Amino acid sequence: MWPTSALLASVAFAAPELPPESAAGCAPLDEPAFRSYVLDAQASIDRGDVELPAAILAEVQEQLPCLTFAPAPRMWADLLVAWAIVEFSRGGDWEGPLAGALRIRPMIDRGVGPGHPLARWEPPSPPPSGPPVPDGVRLYVDGFASPTLPPAKGWYLVQKTDGRFWNTLLIRDTDLPLQWATDPVEQPARVRWWTRLGGFGALGSASQRPSWGSDFYPELADQQGRLGAVLDLQATFMSPFGLRAHGTASYSSSLWLDGWASVAFAPGQSTLGLGVGSATVETVEWIYPPDTPNAAPSDALGRARQLRFGLLTAGYRASGRSRWDVEATVGASPAIVRYEAQAGLLLPPLSGARMRVGLMLDGRRAVFEQRSSQNRDVVVGNVLLALRLDWVAGEY
Questions:
Q1: Beta strand spans in 266-370 (E)
Q2: Is 50 exposed, middle or buried (0-12, 13-18, 19+ CB in 10 A)?
Q3: Tens digits of per-residue pLDDT, 292-325?
Q4: Beta strands 270-287 and 255-265: pairing type?
Q5: 212 pLDDT band (50/70/90 cuts)?
Q6: pTM attached to this predicted model
Q7: How far apart are CA 218 and CA 210, in angstroms?
Q8: How far, in Å, CA of 283 to CA of 217, rounded?
Q9: CA 196/CA 229 separation, integer angstroms
Q10: In whole angstroms, what separates CA 303 from the centre of its chain?
């Protein structure tokens, strides 16, 4: 419960009308920043301060067109309660935001004691829903995916999305412009990027098979474990087109460096890419004592080689509350077949940090030919399954 002393202050709280569409050049307002606004406003009111939350809410209003996601209904309702408290303190329209909060969460904490007018007030009955959403339009109302347009009476946060960009309006006792709903989603002219940086531990298998009885390449089948670091980066430039890159460095008995880069096409939540990459493949070769070349092998050493390939990559990142993602990459050249697959889940923020946990499958199969002899080659294969933990930044 918020202290009633906060309700006795009187502050000037400007409430500018929102522009009809998202501004093309506005700075993105992501989920951590929005949550910070809400928590800061609540904490200020808890301390009996209304001037700071008034300034916070004024800034939120200016930034609403720049939302890059659909806010959780509970968090939007908490913001509306703070809005109602500030408006009550200045004699403004507090019933609109409070009714909106109670419509979303009827049992929400109103932040005042039981005898206060905000606690005793009963909202009017909700108006009937608006007409159905036009075909092909993805509409969210107060954070919920909605099959209908909002009513003309009440406060509603209305958003449309193409899966990649969001346009937002705050509707207050007026009809939603039908043309706004049916117009294509505006794509802000800015660079959009995200990155994942993390580490992984992997277990798997390694094999080496010469096609003849070689006295230089032993036949091997062994278990393998690796630890490593991984980086993913994607950026698009004022359009769905951009770049996608992935790199790993891992170590077991030797250091492997792998990476690829592609031209990316990222319409909505999907990403498609065409590019080139390089991977480390390790052969094991016998080392003989120099004075007895025909004796039994005394040692074996790994020899790391870098092989290049062309690749296709595809990925999908969900935009709902679960925020999961999947991705697959396949590359090939005459010497190597390379594949990666991964799936991850974005965790709730921890002290402001955004973390992701996932699984990653990494495989490579290379063929090394002995050019001096026909039909002699060595096939080397590695398959790893890794548990991955990432720090996430950008518009992910």
A1: 270-287, 299-317, 324-332, 336-346, 355-369
A2: buried
A3: 455 444 456 778 899 999 999 999 988 766 789 9
A4: antiparallel
A5: confident
A6: 0.59
A7: 7
A8: 8
A9: 11
A10: 38
